[in-house]
Specification:
- With 394 residues, this protein is of the alpha+beta class.
- It has four domains: 1-105, no CATH class; 107-238, Alpha-D-Glucose-1,6-Bisphosphate, Chain A, domain 4 (2-Layer Sandwich), CATH 3.30.530; 254-362, Winged helix-like DNA-binding domain superfamily/Winged helix DNA-binding domain (Arc Repressor Mutant, subunit A); 366-394.
- Helix content is 45%, strand content 21%.
- The strands form five sheets. The protein has a five-stranded antiparallel β-sheet, covered by helices on one side.
- The radius of gyration is 31 Å and the shape is elongated.
Length: 394
C-alpha cells in the first residue's frame, strides 16, 4: 500500500520545491520550499547579477535590492504558490470535495531563518570561528540561552538546554538547543559564517502555527541570530590581534607602493625592532645614520660597512607598514603609536618567551627541569605508551 506520494516541481518564481501527499484520510500534505531559491529567481528576473552559494548568495551586484526582495517573501506569496499548483496537480481531494469546502490550509511545521556573512579573508574567519566555539561552550545554559531567544527559562521550562560541538571532517559546528528549536552556527564552504535558527514548534514562542504568523516567526528567528552574534561579540575581541599581526608579517601595498613583510622570525627584523625601541624616548626622532649604526651593532656587523641602501630599504618598509612616520621638512623619523606597540611586543615576545621556552623544551641535557619541560616530557611519554599499546594489539 502506498502511504505517501511526492511530486517534485520547478516554479518560475520559487524554483524547485516538492509536495508530499498522504493517501489516507485526512490526506495530510507537506509543502517544502527554499526562500533562497525564490530570491535567486527574483534577482534573475530583474537582471541583477549574483554569484550563488549553496543555500544562499556569495555575492550580489545590488545587495540592498537583494535584501528588499528577500523581505518581500510573504505568507500570501507562499499560499498563492500552493493554490496555483493544486489547480494543476493530482491530489486526494476531488472536485466534489473541494466544492463541498474541503481545502488545504497551511500551517508551519518547520521554519529556518539564516544569516550568511561572507568573509573577505576566509582563513582568518576560520580561526575566528574556532575561537568563538572555545569561548562559547556554555552558550546553551539556561541563563545564556534565554538571552538569545528573549524567553524566560526556569525549572519548569521543558526541553534540554545544551551546547554541542559537532565536527564533520574538519568542519566544526556549534549547536544550541531551546525546547524544540535550535540554533546552528558553522563555517560554510570555507568562506562564510552561517548562523541559522530552526523553529520546529512555533508554540515554543507563543506563536500560532497558521501561515499568517510567518512575520512574527521571522522576527523571532532573525533576532535570535543577531542576539547570538551579539553575545559572541561581547565575549571576543573580533580578531583585531590577528589583523594587526598579519598587517606586519605579510607584504603590504600602500598608495600604489609595495613593501615586503616584516617577519617575526627574521633576525634582521628583530634587530630592527630592538633598535627602534631604543629611539622611542627621543623627542626629535632619529635619522638614517643613527638607526644604521644601532642596527649594525645588533647584527654583529661594522656600522662603517653596513650598506646604506639596505637601511633605506628597511626605512621604507617601516614607513609603508605604518610603524614610523617622517617628520615634515626633515630627514628624521619617529615611531608611531602602533610602531611602538609592535616593536615592544615582537622583541619582548621573542626574547622573553620564545627563545627561553624553546630552550626548556629542546635542551637535551637540562641542568634543571622546569614545569614546561615536565609537561612536554609527560606528553612525549604518553604518546610513546599509546604507540606501544597499538603495536602490541596489532
Amino acid at each position: 500500500m502506498v502511504n505517501n506520494f511526492y511530486i517534485y516541481c520547478v516554479d518560475r518564481d520559487f524554483g524547485p520545491f516538492f509536495l508530499k501527499f498522504c493517501t489516507y484520510f485526512p490526506y495530510n500534505a507537506k509543502l517544502c520550499l527554499n526562500g533562497h531559491e525564490w530570491l535567486k529567481r527574483q534577482l534573475k528576473h530583474r537582471g541583477i547579477g549574483f554569484e550563488a552559494l549553496d543555500n544562499g548568495l556569495l555575492s550580489c551586484a545590488d545587495p540592498k535590492r537583494a535584501q528588499t526582495l528577500s523581505n518581500a517573501l510573504s505568507a500570501e506569496k507562499i499560499d498563492a504558490l500552493l493554490r496555483k499548483w493544486l489547480r494543476r496537480l493530482p491530489h486526494p481531494y476531488s472536485p466534489a470535495d473541494r466544492k463541498a469546502g474541503y481545502r488545504y490550509q497551511i500551517s508551519i511545521l518547520q521554519a529556518e531563518f539564516s544569516l550568511t556573512q561572507v568573509l573577505d579573508r576566509p582563513a582568518a574567519g576560520r580561526l575566528f570561528f574556532e575561537e568563538i566555539i572555545r569561548e562559547n561552550l556554555d552558550i546553551g545554559r539556561p541563563s545564556q540561552v534565554q538571552l538569545i531567544f528573549a524567553r524566560r527559562v526556569n525549572t519548569r521550562t521543558p526541553g534540554r538546554f545544551r551546547t554541542r560541538v559537532i565536527t564533520e571532517g574538519v568542519i566544526p559546528s556549534l549547536h544550541v538547543d531551546y525546547k524544540s528549536s535550535r540554533i546552528k552556527q558553522y563555517f560554510k564552504l570555507n568562506c562564510a559564517l552561517r548562523t541559522e535558527t530552526t523553529i520546529n514548534n512555533t508554540r515554543d514562542f507563543g506563536i500560532g502555527k497558521r501561515l499568517k504568523n510567518l512575520p512574527a516567526l521571522r522576527e523571532v528567528g532573525f533576532q535570535a541570530n543577531r542576539r547570538l552574534l551579539d553575545v559572541q561579540t561581547i565575549a571576543h575581541d573580533c580578531f583585531i590581534g590577528q589583523q594587526a599581526y598579519e598587517q606586519v608579517v605579510h607584504p603590504i601595498e600602500c598608495d600604489g607602493q609595495r613593501a615586503s613583510a616584516l617577519r617575526f622570525d627574521d633576525r634582521r627584523v628583530q634587530a630592527l625592532f630592538s633598535a627602534l625601541v631604543m629611539f622611542s624616548p627621543h623627542l626629535n626622532g632619529f635619522c638614517h645614520r643613527q638607526l644604521r649604526e644601532h642596527l649594525a651593532q645588533l647584527l654583529g656587523l661594522d656600522p662603517a660597512t653596513y650598506p646604506p641602501g639596505r637601511m633605506t630599504y628597511d626605512l621604507r618598509r617601516l614607513r609603508l607598514h605604518g610603524l614610523i612616520r617622517r617628520i615634515p621638512g626633515t630627514h628624521r623619523y619617529h615611531l608611531t603609536a602602533q610602531g611602538l606597540r609592535v616593536a615592544l611586543f615582537f622583541t619582548r615576545t621573542h626574547a622573553r618567551l620564545l627563545r627561553p621556552k624553546l630552550a626548556d623544551i629542546f635542551d637535551p641535557a637540562p641542568r634543571f627541569t622546569t614545569p614546561l619541560r615536565k609537561a612536554f616530557d609527560r606528553v612525549d611519554q604518553e604518546i610513546k605508551r599509546c604507540c606501544l599499546q597499538l603495536n602490541l594489539a596489532a
